[in-house]
Design goal:
bMERB_dom, MICA1 monooxygenase, monooxygenase activity
């Protein structure tokens, strides 16, 4: 292989490993969120029972339970928001991987001289380019979604 191709293959493998490690980290965090969410939900149920059953409890105790319940609700909302962000990141990783594969396919066709290409190869090249543009547009949409979410949280 020429030097440029070895370098390109090495960079491609490194990028693929980076995406794989990122996907694993996201998966671990999603599992942690699920466990935490269940714990928080149990806390919320317990607090709601206290508030319903102890309707005539002291004002200070009732206020303390209400504050704890509000904290639990905020924690749940925070977890849901983080989970949503991670799901967007998962989609982005999938699209990034797809873009990398399409890019590799397109490079194979582009390295062949135009005069030597068959009509089928030209059609396949155009199809891959169309798919690549579609993936780029989907990634752009995800970025817009993330930006809108970030702005709405501010």
């Amino acid at each position: 292989y020429p030097t440029w191709k070895r370098t390109w293959l090495r960079q491609t493998r490194e990028a693929q490993m980076k995406r794989f490690c990122k996907a694993q980290a996201i998966q671990r965090r999603l599992e942690e969120i699920e466990v935490t969410f269940q714990e928080v939900e149990k806390q919320g149920i317990k607090l709601e029972k206290f508030l319903r059953e102890e309707g005539g409890a002291q004002g200070d105790l009732r206020t303390q339970w209400m504050n704890q319940l509000l904290h639990v609700v905020q924690k749940k909302n925070s977890l849901v928001s983080e989970e949503s962000d991670l799901m967007i990141a998962v989609q982005e990783l999938k699209l990034e991987e797809q873009q990398c594969q399409l890019d590799q396919q397109l490079r194979r066709y582009m390295h062949k001289e135009e005069a030597l290409k068959t009509p089928e190869e030209r059609a396949a090249e155009r199809e891959i380019l169309a798919q690549l543009l579609d993936v780029v547009n989907k990634r752009n949409t995800l970025i817009h979604i993330q930006e809108e979410k970030r702005l709405s949280e501010l």
